[in-house]
Each structure stands twice: as structure tokens, then as C-alpha cells.
């Protein structure tokens, strides 16, 4: 392991900044390898002290430093700081420096994306642009001037409003932008390039007209409409649901091809990964359409939750991310099917967040210690963070929650604050003591709620007991009891709802705050079946000794659609887990019994088609993996396949009916079409797996006749699942058709990477030589290498260790190019805790190899050092 140990930053060490900057004047003269940056800051000393000014900076060539117009030379420079000693309490600091966007492959700071300049400053990328107080609690107004060659860079963009522009000799031009809102430097953005521009307008509830501008690669204009429509929907929704209106006169979105994440909420100038902007029927799936709408909304919602009120320090990241994810989830639910959305949210928690909690990267939604901040943009901070906000919503009710939000903005607009400030506003607006609830912010791990019950027939009473249990996690030994809202109802044996309590409620909410709490119900005629954790009212693992019959009843009769889906998933999971150690005949019997329980679902008329498709979808391998403490990888994979095939064969005729019953319509991204495609393509998968004799014909017909990417891709997915020779043939045709469209090819790379075949590593190595593949583009790397390591169970976990070695070799290369992406893709390798001892050792060996890499980034160092025993 590398011997230089990077600094660990602690939340408890927070100190106010020694200096504040209230105005910044930036001037950029863009040139590929030597961009000149002039940064003029108005600095004031914060409090009475004589400490020097210490600025952050990384990879910067410093030309000069002036204070109040006088050049200073008695500064000290280290690899990542510039220290200037001055007596002045208020001064103008002028720094001139050079940076090299062309060689910046980290995609942080100022870099080139396919010929266009763009920036990414969150979390700590501004320090790669100039020396600055790169922390979110230093808020300033920015004026930005950009100078560049006019022919190649006709559009010069930054935050706020365009206030001036002009021509210069040698076909250069300049544009000046001014942002009237105070902001931290992580929200600064600059984009320069030649784009196609899609324009529109939005009239706010108070009657202001906002110019909307969407910049895309040349020739991509027709693929931008869905993003723009989504933006308008999000703007309207935030007004009607949260009373929040946009504040600048212009809102710009730029789509770029080289981007580390989904998108970035820079004030007035969002920069997006083109994957989350560009869509048309031919190239994007229903899922892409959905994601675009969600990410566009997420970044827009940040304008209030993140930009107007921002984080005091990066440990508070969930203040803006958890809240904004919750807001985008509510928006998506309103735009499409609430239940399908909720299921999707829960899948992320169970597949990925529970995995993080069980790993050496376990951390609370408000982490206590960080080496590399970029490592903490996690499913815990984002998605568990959103679940914590959702619990507040559940506990306070919509009205109470909105009162809390209102007070939060009243108190903190224009400030950089903490998660505690947020909870305090919720508490004060509702007059509800949330002190115990706050533990969700400081405690990591997945709580378990164990439910037991008893029925006394003579007294006709039913007692149900809830107990919360917390185990130590890698980061914390001591755990405390939390406040856990549990929504539930009771069903009688005729699957009718039992009225609960005085209010004749049918659903009850228990606020579990003690380690154990019981409820008693009187006048109950027979032992009820509890339908528990409606809507996934808390991010916990629930344990109730359901019989198979009871689960079947909840699946068919619960008033809560989430509970119905969940019961079905549990039936599937129990069956899969129980197959281990059984004889073939026992396995067969047990599978048949489970499969038969789903017959009424196929015929059901009381649920939407979308929910039906969700119920009939098996839990993913990753979800099943998280349900166990130790996993027999091969056994689990095999068992899941057995059940999959049995479902396919048992309902073969039904699948054929489901496949053929919907009339084909020209593609539109509309709810009824989306759910029909979902069911039809699920049926196609099952048909393929069932061995239906003419399925190849069906697949070819759908592939040739498809007018949209959802249907084309479904054919490839089905052929892959069925292990048909046709798969290779269709993949070739697909590649020929989409050779010049990298976003579409990513789907093809990912399908290849996820194929079970003995020569998978040779196949991936060959694909790395594809003309469209480059290690410099995160979308390509995620599609090929990421998909392999996250999802190709047999290839990645090959017992000979070749999968782990392959990923490790790649990460060693990627460490030099883009440490952030390398640290994302290492995730499956550090999650060795549940696998067998042989694999554990193989994985750890590869982690050690990566750890020994010369020039190991902080990103990888942090994850590897934590995960090695
Ligand atoms: N705030 C950005 C994420 C920045 C990640 C930096 N490594 C996107 C978002 O959550 O909206
Ligand atoms: Zn966000």
C-alpha cells in the first residue's frame, strides 16, 4: 500500500473561514494548453486574528499575485496551496495563472470535452482553475469575462446574465456575464464551444418570462425536445407543489459528451452528460426518457435546495442531495406511475445502499470523516438521504413538511447551512421534538425491524410487537435506537381489511422509537395477517415469519400496492434461497408451488399493467445477494435461473397472450404505451427462456419492425438471456447501424459486458479496441468495464480470480486518467464481505495490487485502505 497517507478531514474540525470573498471578477483567455486566468477577489478578514490567507490550488502555473495593485512575492506555494501573509483586513487580491484544459483528463476544473471547453467544480474542482478559498461557505458575486476564438467558440457561457460582449482583433471575441446571486465557487461554470441551440420560454407564476436555452452537439437538435419539455414541467411543478419560482432571467443547459456524473446544477448554467439530455424514439429507451426527465428536474430543483440555500461544509452534502432526490422522486411519481417509481427507489436502496452499509465504505448520510470528497457522492448520502427526508414527510404530513420547508427558506435563503439547521426548521415549524430523529444523520447501517405477533381467540385480542435491532458497521460500533415510521394494516382470512383504532383507519402508522413497542387490537375475530411497511415507510430490513400462504394473501389482498409487490418479491426470494441443499425433486416441487401462487397476478384486473409487470419480475441477483450474510455466488446464480425458467415454462401460454394482445402504435413516450411495452417485452423475455419453438421468428420480427430503441434493445436482452445464437447476429447488425452513435453504442457495450460466456475477458479486451471506445470517456468506461464488474456475476466472480484481476488491471490504468471514475468502478471489488473465503482472498489480493500502484489517487487510496483487513 502506498506509504504517503493523505489527510483525513473530520466534520468535528469545522472552523469558519479566516477570510471571506464577497466579489470575484474572473477573466479567461481560452487556449487549449495554456488558458490564462485572471481572478480578482474582494477579500475581507473574518474576525480578529492575524493568520495568513491560505488559498487552495492544484496543478496551477502561477504568474503573479497583487494586493491592492501592488505585486507581492513573499508568498509560499505548496503542491495544493498558496499562502499569502498580509496585514490588511480588506483588500483586492489579483491572481494571474495558467492552466492546461487539454491535458486535464480528470474532467474536474476546466477541461475539453470533444473540442468544447467546460467546467466541473463540485466538490473541489475550482482549485484546479485558480487559487481560491475553495469551500462552500465562502459566498460571492461573480462577474466573468471569457475571451476566445470566435469561429470555433461562437458561444461563450457562464452563470447569470449576459451583460456585455465585443469583438477583438485576430477573429477573437469576448462575452461578459454577471451573476447577481451570491454563490460558492462549486457552482461556478464556464462553457465555450459551437453548438446547436434550442430555445424556448417559461412564464413563471408571478408573470416573469424566463428564456430557456438548451445547447447540444451540432446535428442533435431534434434530440433535445424531451429535455426542454421536461424542464418546463419541472419549473411548473416546483411552483405548484413547493411554491418555488425560478429567480434569474435565463436558464441554460449544455449537453457534453465527457462528464463524470449525470449533470451539474451550476447557477443558471447546468452542464449535463449528453446521456441525460439527448433522446428520440430511435435512439433512446423508455428508461432513458424517464431518466432525462428526472435528472433535468433534479438539477432544476437544486436552484432552491442547494443553490439558494447551500451546504456549510461538504459533510452536509445530504442537506442538498437527499432533499433534492426526494423532490425529484416526488416529481417523477407525479409525472408517471407512483408505484413503479417507488419500486424503483426501493430497488436502489436494497441493491446498492444496503450493500454500501454492509461494506467497509459504510457511512452515515452525514459522514464524519472524508479523505476524498468525491467518494461521498454515494447512494447513502443521496438515496438513503432522500429516504430520511421522506420519513420526515411521513411523520409530519404534507402540510407540516411544507411548513418546515417554508421556514427553512425564510431562515436560510442566501446562506450556507447544516443538516441540523434543516431539521431544526422542520421541528420549529411543527412543534415536534425531532431530537431522536436526528440520529438518522449520524448513524450508519441498515436497521432491522423484527415483528412478532400473537392472537388470543378467547379474548379476541391481537398483539403485534416491533423491535428495532442495530448491528455494528465497519465505521461504527455503538448504535442507538432510531425513530422508525412503520405504516401497516391488518387483513382477515377473507383478505378484507380490518379497521384499526378509533378513527376507523385501515392503515396505521407506528412511530417506533423504543427498542421494542407493542400494539394491541381488540375485537378481532381471527388471527390477522399483517401487511407491513407500506410504501417502504423506512429504509430498514423487515423480519416477520410469514408463511408462504400469508405472503400470497398480502400479495393479492393488501391495500398497499408496494406491500403487494414486496410480498411477491419475498415469495420469489424465499424460494430461491431455499433451493440450496435440496434434492432435484424437492427443488422442482418447491418451485412449482411458488410459481403457482403467481397465477392470479397474471389474470388480475385490479392492478395496473405496470405493477403487474413489476410483480412478475424476479428480484435481481444484487437484491438477493444483499438478503444474505454469506453468499454462495454460483449457487445463488443457479437457483435464480431455475426459478426464472420455471416461470417462463409454466406460463408459456400466458406470456404469448401478453405478448400479442396489445395493438402496435407509433412510438410515443406516454404512460399507457410505456406500460404496454414493459409487459410485452417482459413476456418476450419469458417466451425466449421457455424455449418456445418459434421464438426466434418473434425476435427477428420485433427487431426488424421496431420503430423505437426500447423494443430493439428488448430483443437483444431476450436473445442474450436465452443464450441464442441469434444474439451474436443481431448484435452485429446493431453495431453496423449505430456505429457512429456512441450513446447508443454504450447500450451495445453494456450488453456485451454482461454476457455470460467463457471467453468474456477476451471479448471485453477486443471491445476496448473498438474505434468508439476510449478510456477518456466515462460513459464508455462505465458501459464496458463498469457493467462487467457490477453485473456480470459469472465473469467477475469467476473462481479462478481472472475477473477480479482484469478489473484491477484496468483500474490501475484508469487511476492515472480519471481517479473519480476508477473509484466508482472499484465498488464491487471492495464488497468482498459476503463472498466465500477463496474469493475474499482473491479480491483482497487484487486490492493490494492496486494499492501498490505508484501515484495512487486519494480516491482509490481511501476505498482500498478501508477495505483491506
Ligand atoms: N451536484 C452534482 C454532483 C457533483 C458530484 C461531484 N463529484 C450533481 C447532482 O447531484 O445534482
Ligand atoms: Zn444533486
Automatic annotation (TrEMBL):
Gene3D superfamilies in the record: 2.60.40.1840, 3.30.2010.30, Neutral Protease Domain 2, Peptidase M1, alanyl aminopeptidase, C-terminal domain, tricorn interacting facor f3 domain
Known cofactor(s): Zn(2+)
Reactions it catalyzes: Release of an N-terminal amino acid, Xaa-|-Yaa- from a peptide, amide or arylamide. Xaa is preferably Ala, but may be most amino acids including Pro (slow action). When a terminal hydrophobic residue is followed by a prolyl residue, the two may be released as an intact Xaa-Pro dipeptide
Record-annotated Peptidase M1 alanyl aminopeptidase C-terminal domain positions: 549-868
A Pfam family: DUF3458
Record key words, sorted: Aminopeptidase, Hydrolase, Metal-binding, Metalloprotease, Protease, Zinc
GO biological process, one term: proteolysis
EC number: 3.4.11.2
Boundaries of every Peptidase M1 membrane alanine aminopeptidase domain copy: 227-440
Residue intervals of the Peptidase M1 alanyl aminopeptidase Ig-like fold domain: 445-544
EC main group: hydrolase
Domain Aminopeptidase N-like N-terminal: start-end pairs: 51-187
Family designation: Belongs to the peptidase M1 family.
Protein name (Swiss-Prot/TrEMBL): Aminopeptidase N
